[in-house]
Amino acid sequence: MAEIVCIIGNKGGTGKTTLSHMLCQGLGLLGQRSACILTDTTREPLQPAGRRYITADARTPEALRKVVDKLRGMDDWLGVIDGGGNRTEIDRRLYGIADIVLLPFRESHEDIRTVIKDLDLFPRAYAVPTQWPSNAWQRRTADRSVAQLMSDYKHRILRPVIALSSSKLLLQRQVPDGMPTPLANACRAVAGQLMDLMELEYRQLGDTTERSDAGLPPPRAGIERLVHSH
Ligand SMILES: Nc1ncnc2c1ncn2[C@@H]1O[C@H](COP(=O)(O)OP(=O)(O)OP(=O)(O)O)[C@@H](O)[C@H]1O
Ligand SMILES: [Mg+2]
Asked: What would the pLDDT profile of 59-73 be if each residue is shown by its tens digit?
């Protein structure tokens, strides 16, 4: 049975969509098959070609039900559902079907206040610092805000996803051939963390380049199965 990961949260623009694609790309690089599932009605589906994962369109409740049912029957897969922002009711529903729930948040106090509310609302969820500053001084300030404002939640905070301008490549309708190594490394890091959290085994691949095939077959069978499900 596939595990379902939901990326939700009440605030818009925190990085849910970016994180869902980084996670799936990283899972692919670690040899784990996954589907990135779109539920945001204001966004267009992205092409699966060139990605290490498949994409699925679940912008209606009916399509979501079908995709989740399909995934549940696919052994060794992970489904990563990208929520929408400002949709508490949908978030509640996604929380109900998820095995793991992630709540991305940025360093602002406003984001932190919102993610604390969501952590209270969704007791099984983990908070993921995203778009985290790479500059040492800014990073210290951001880490300090989290330490001060989120001390009661410290066991539910994952390692930060660093701000990386190349992350937007994954949100292009069609990804470019070969992606930058820092992006691949960041994807792998966040995916490895999730796999550890879910106590799933993964391959530690020696290569760090996105271009390398690492002997993995493309997840074609899965594409067929999801694409033809609705
Ligand atoms: N790790 C990152 N590094 C750099 N930029 C990022 C990162 N994550 C997200 N961003 C940028 O932040 C903006 C918002 O990201 P994204 O669309 O992923 O957020 P979202 O939570 O899905 O938004 P919405 O609530 O509208 O669905 C985008 O411009 C995206 O490129
Ligand atoms: Mg989004």
From this structure: 999 999 999 999 999
Choose the CATH number for 3-227 among 3.40.50.1820, 3.40.50.300, 3.30.70.580, 3.20.20.80: 3.40.50.300
CA 30, CA 195: separation in Å to the nearest integer? 9
- Does residue 12's CB lie within 6 angstroms of at least one atom of ligand 1? yes
> Tens digit of pLDDT for each residue in 184-226?
999 999 999 999 999 888 876 544 444 444 444 344 444 334 4
Is the whole model's pTM more than 0.85, yes or no? yes
Decide whether any atom of ligand 1 lies within 6 Å of the 167 Cβ. Answer: yes
Reported as a single tens digit per residue, the pLDDT across 88-121 is 889 999 999 999 999 999 999 999 999 999 999 9
Whether residue 114 has its Cβ less than 6 Å from ligand 1: no
- Does residue 16's CB lie within 6 angstroms of at least one atom of ligand 1? yes
Tell me the helix, strand and coil percentages in the chain, rounded to 5.
Answer: 45, 15, 40
124 Cα to the center of ligand 1, angstroms? 23
Closest protein CA for atom 16 of ligand 1: 15
Contact between 128 and 158 under an 8 Å Cβ cutoff? The reply is: yes
Residues 6 or more apart from 64 whose CB is under 8 A from it? 37, 39, 58, 81
